[in-house]
Amino acid sequence: DAALNVPDKKVDSVCPYCGVGCQLTYNVKDNKILYVEGRDGPANHQRLCVKGRYGFDYAHHPHRLTVPLIRRADAPKRGDFTMDPERVMDVFRPASWEEALALAGGKLKEIRDTYGKKSLAGFGSAKGSNEEAYLFQKLVRTGFGSNNVDHCTRLCHASSVAALLEGIGSGAVSNPVMDVTKAEVVVIIGANPTVNHPVAATWIKNAVKNGTKLILMDPRRSEMARIAHRFLQFKPDTDVALLNAMMHVIVNEGLVDPDFIASRTVGYDELEKNVQSYSPELMAPICGIDADTIRYVARLYATSKASMILWGMGISQHIHGTDNARCLISLTLMTGQIGRAGTGLHPLRGQNNVQGASDAGLIPMMYPDYQRVDNAAAKEKFEKLWGMPLDPQPGLTVVEIMHAIKDGNKEGKIRGMYIMGENPAMSDPDANHAREALAALDHLVVQDIFLTETAYLADVVLPASAFAEKTGTFTNTDRLVQLGRQALDPPGEAKQDLWIIQQMAMQLGLDWNYAHVSDVFDEMRQSMPSIGGITWDRLEREHAVTYPCRTEGDAGQSVVFTDDFPTATGRARFVPADIIPADERPDAQYPMVLITGRQLEHWHTGSMTRRTMVLDAIEPDPVALVHPLDLEEMGGKPGDIVTIESRRGTVSLFARADDSSPRGAVFVPFCYYEAAINMLTNAALDPYGKIPEFKYCAVRMTLGGEV
Ligand code: SF4
């Protein structure tokens, strides 16, 4: 019956998945999304990928949490994870909101008052709105009383942000993705946009069609290789060797931009000296790219009228992730390829709001707008705004919090946590350790829409709202602040996240009263100069405004650093980097390299997309992408079950022959709970960004096992 598919309302919103930030329209009937259409947003111009178009029905899934849950006194916190909703009530009992909030917040308060302010921590979410991120970090800073607040930026671009803040004074992109259409040369390194930023990939493909030269650099061959002018499949973990060799060529062939270096930067002499020991001839055997190719791409990048660099987790998720990003920044600065259309630096942000959540202060060392917590003036400013004294010491990061639960001394031990919309039991490295840590907490409160692997370990579970069930702002990878609008009512007794955070704040003794999400946004504007000029009315009217937008009426600036950098001197800083090998190299016992990442159809830990009919039908089973010759050498064939082991854990899953992975490396997506690959990954951290080394650890693979 055609009438069944006629929507009773259309709601303009944004996509809940990746950082591209495609605008879309929800077509709704009887509180159900019928279908989704692309809108003419600045980042997508009506385009949507498979996730944006078909990934909406998780909101209607029968696994949705519809009542608050309290763990039964006799329910163990370990082992036997279940995704079976039938078994939820073996572990939890339903509770009223009143009882659940009193226990959730009351017990956190008791821990704080007994063991001190550093005994609590919170993880917010890069999937939530800016307003939710802002209120969550405010709750931790004022209600818990410490800066122990973080989110999954620590697992994706924290090292890029550390390098960017240090080098150019800003952690966001210099140019929007769409600028690839104005570039003569585009370098993509350590990113697979076709899979992870699909609509952005279409703009890159369009640019190439119109003559832009694409230089793709990656240990794995992605689909972009087909259209690349040059594809450099360098050996895993050798980014610094390759990038320093390119800089060696640029320096020694006189291809630098001396005026830009002299007028806009500091520290060039040290950088120049450092790259001298990285000749292409010396680096070629290390990175696996011949010297002539290194020379060719270095010249191409340096001499084009406009060259732009985009990168992803392949750069950032290493113990030398900050060094990798420092090299990209130096390349850009020495050639003056920044501050103009079609140039610059673009770390492709993963989650739909990882940029905004970081901007809003959901990180342990910075208040909103990257104002340092250990800066006296910033602290004073926020003490005045929030009306109470604040802790001047930076807090712990994601992985540090897990260690502080299990191994913290009397003063530093974390005993209680509030986790909103994150799933560290799946997403953290060395996930067995993370799960043991979460289970060891005296008190864990999880706010989510499903009983995730993390929620399964909670003492109290608070049923929250899905993306389409709330209104808020979300900041995409281009620094575009966009309005997501509510299209559905939450199911059962599930509540909007902003309401839940406020209720939790009250349990901790805070007196908050934000009547509308726009009240929170208005408070954010007071403390965040970068968005000071963006009004709620304007967002309602225009749907999206780019920051920096400092004063009302300001058009917003999509290309930044045109005249200076937001550093104390206005100049950018070169920071040299040397080769640091991966923390865990292959050896006789564990001879292969494990690389983790995402699939086109699934999102992060899979809690949403694996409950989406179309997406899960396309990719229903956990797979390991193995080079066909490696598979053949093991005596296996595609579809066989393989078991992968590291020093930290074991998983079994289906082998898929895939010659885009180099020999000796296996790629596994981290979205499958039945083969949670992060049980194998290494929790060693980059010392600056504190990001774990997801892109490299030693494993062995054998045929057989059980999925
Ligand atoms: Fe959504 Fe990203 Fe796909 Fe756009 S490219 S539809 S934002 S997942």
From TrEMBL:
Domain 4Fe-4S Mo/W bis-MGD-type: from-to ranges: 8-63
Molecular functions per Gene Ontology: 4 iron, 4 sulfur cluster binding; formate dehydrogenase (NAD+) activity; metal ion binding; molybdopterin cofactor binding; NADH dehydrogenase (ubiquinone) activity; NADH dehydrogenase activity
Record flagged with keyword Oxidoreductase: yes
Cofactor entry: [2Fe-2S] cluster; Mo-bis(molybdopterin guanine dinucleotide); [4Fe-4S] cluster
A cellular component term, taken from the record's GO annotations: membrane
UniProt keyword Signal, yes or no: no
A biological process term (GO) from this entry: ATP synthesis coupled electron transport
Keyword line: 4Fe-4S, Iron, Iron-sulfur, Metal-binding, Molybdenum, Oxidoreductase, Repeat
Similarity annotation: In the C-terminal section; belongs to the prokaryotic molybdopterin-containing oxidoreductase family.
Designated name of the protein: Formate dehydrogenase subunit alpha
The organism of origin for this protein: Noviherbaspirillum cavernae
Source species taxonomy: Bacteria, Pseudomonadati, Pseudomonadota, Betaproteobacteria, Burkholderiales
Residue window of the full protein shown: 219 to 925 of 943
